[in-house]
Automatic annotation (TrEMBL):
One of its GO terms (biological process) is sodium ion transport. GO terms for molecular function: antiporter activity. Residues 12-386 form the Cation/H+ exchanger transmembrane domain. It is a multi-pass membrane protein. It is found in: Membrane. The chain crosses the membrane at residues 6-23, 30-49, 55-72, 84-105, 111-133, 145-168, 180-202, 223-253, 273-294, 301-322, 362-383. It holds the Pfam family Na_H_Exchanger. This is Kef-type K+ transport system membrane component KefB. GO terms for cellular component: membrane. Keywords: Antiport, Ion transport, Membrane, Sodium, Sodium transport, Transmembrane, Transmembrane helix, Transport. It comes from the Bacteria. Residues 404-488 form the RCK N-terminal domain.
Amino acid sequence: MEGFDILNLFIVLLAAWGAGALTKRIGYPAILGELLIGVIIGPSLLGLVETSSTLVIISEAGVILLMAYIGMEINFKDLGKASWAGLLAAIGGFVVPFALGYYVVTLTGGTSMAGLFVGIAVGVTSLATKSRILVDLGLLDTRIAYVLMAGALISDTLALIIFAGLSSFIDVGAVNMSEILLIAGKIIVFFLFATGFGLYILPRIGKWMASRNIENRTTYFTLLLLIVFGLSELAELVGLHGILGAFIAGVFIKDGVFHEKITKDITRVFHDVSIGFMAPIFFVTAGFHVTLDVFKTDLELLLLIVGVAFIGKILGTVLFYLPSGNGWREGLAVGTGMNGRGAVEIVIAGIGLQKGIITQEIFSILVFMAILTTLSVPILLTWTTNWLKKRGELVKQFSRQGHVILGANPVALLLGKHLSESNKVVFIDANKGICENAKSKGFECIHGNILEESTLNEAAVKDFRTFIALTVNNEINLLASQFVNDVFFIPEKFVVISPNNGEGGSINLLSSVSASTLFSSKVDLQPWIQKIQDSNYKEVEIIITKKTGTRQWVKSQFSKNKTLLPLVIVDGAGTKRPFRYNDHIDVDEKVIFIE
C-alpha cells in the first residue's frame, strides 16, 4: 500500500468518525454525516481525497460485512407483534413509491432498468435507525413502534429480493425463455442451499465446536467471515449480488446456533468492524460520486424524486393501512416514521452506479433524497404522534409487563412487595447473600453484574416494561439505566438519586437515559434501609382529594416538616405504580408511603 493511499484512508476515517459523531450527537444516524462529509471532502467541493483502489476494496468488503450485521440484527419473531398491520404498511410503503419512482425516471427519459433501481431506492425504509428514534421519542411501547419495525423489516427484505432478481438480468442483453428459466433455476438453487446450510449445517457446526470446548472468539469470527464471504461469492456465481448472500448469512447467525456469549461477542465484533471501520469508508466514498451540478441541471428531477419519495411512502402507507382497522391517522404516523431511508438504499444505488445502470446525476439525487427523508423522520413522527396523543388515539402495545429492580435491599423489597401484587417483579443484585435473602422472602432474584448482558438475559429483561435502579450508588444506577436503555430498549426507567453521592448522581444526567427520578426527589437511601431493617417505620396510606403532580405533593409534605418516603400510587382499579417524578395523582387515587 502506497503512502498516499494510507493518507487517504486516514483522512476518510477521521472525517467519517468526526461527522458521524456530530450527527449522532444532534439525534440523527451517523450515515448522514458520513455521506455529507464525503460530498465536502470529495471532488464535488474541497477535493481533498479521491477514490483509490485501496478505498474501493475496503469499502466493498465493508458493505458485505454491513449487510451481514444487518441480517444478524433482524428478528423475524418481531413480525408477529404487528403481523397484519405491519405487512400492510410495508406493502403500501414500498409498492406506491416504487411505482412512482419508476414512472418519474422513465417519463423523463431514463431507461426502464434505471427506473427500477430508483423505484427500489425510494421504496426501501431504514431498518437500522428506527429503534433509536423510537426510544428517543418515547414510542417504543406503542403499537406504532411494532408496526414500524415490522414494516421496515419487510420493506428492506422485499427490496433485496427484487434487487436480487434485477441483478441477475443486468449483464444479459436480450433474454429468451430458456435464459430466464436458467437464471430462475440458479436463484432457486442458491436459496435452497443457503436455507439448508443456515437451518441444518450451521447449527451442527456450532454443536461440534461446543463439544470440543472451542471458546476462542477469534476462531468463531474467522469461521463466520468465511461463511459470509462464501455465501456472498456463491450469490455472485449464480448471478445475484454478494450483498444478498451476506444478508442471508447474517440472518442465520442467531441465538442457539452458538453459545449465547459467543453470539453476542461476535455480533459486537461485526458491528465494530463494519459500522465502526469499513462501512463508513463506503458511505464517505459514496459521497465522492455526488455531484452538486444536479441543483443546476437536474433540479426538476431532484424535486420530483424527493417529492414522490415523501408522498409515495406516506400516502402509500396510509392507503394500504386502512384495512388494518387502526385508522388513517395512525397510518399517517406510521408513514412518516417509515419515510427515512438508510444503508440499504445507498448500497443498492451505489451498485446501480457501479454497473452503469444509473447515472452519476441520478445517484446524487438518491443520496440527497436519503438525507432529506431521514432528516424528516423525527420531526414528522413527533408531530403525528403528538396529534394522536391529543386525540387519545396513541395505542400502547402492552406486550411488556412487570418490573426489574436493581438492588434487593430492604427498601427495594418493600417496594417490590407492593408492585408484585399486580405485576411480575424480578430483582438483580451483585451480592449473593442479599440475593439469597430476597429468595427466602419469596422473590425471584438474579445474582450477577447488572452491566453484563448475560445477567440481564438471565433475568429476561427484554420482556419487562419497567427498570428500577434502587441502589445507594448513583453511578451504578445511571450506568445500568443507560445500558438497559441502549441494549434492551426498556420503555420506563426509574432511578434513585442520592443527594450526597458525587457529581455522577446529577439529576441533569437523567435525560440522557430517558429516565425519571424515583420517589420524585433526591433520597438518601441508607437511613431508610436501616429503618426497615430495625422495623422502625410506619406504612401510611392516604386518599388524594385534589389532583396534583407527584413533585408538588412531595414538596407540600416537606413544607409540613414531614420526613417520608413515597413508595407507590394506587389507582381506582387497585393497580400500583412506582411513585416517581413527572407523574400525577388523580382524585381518589391513593399514595402509600413510609415514615
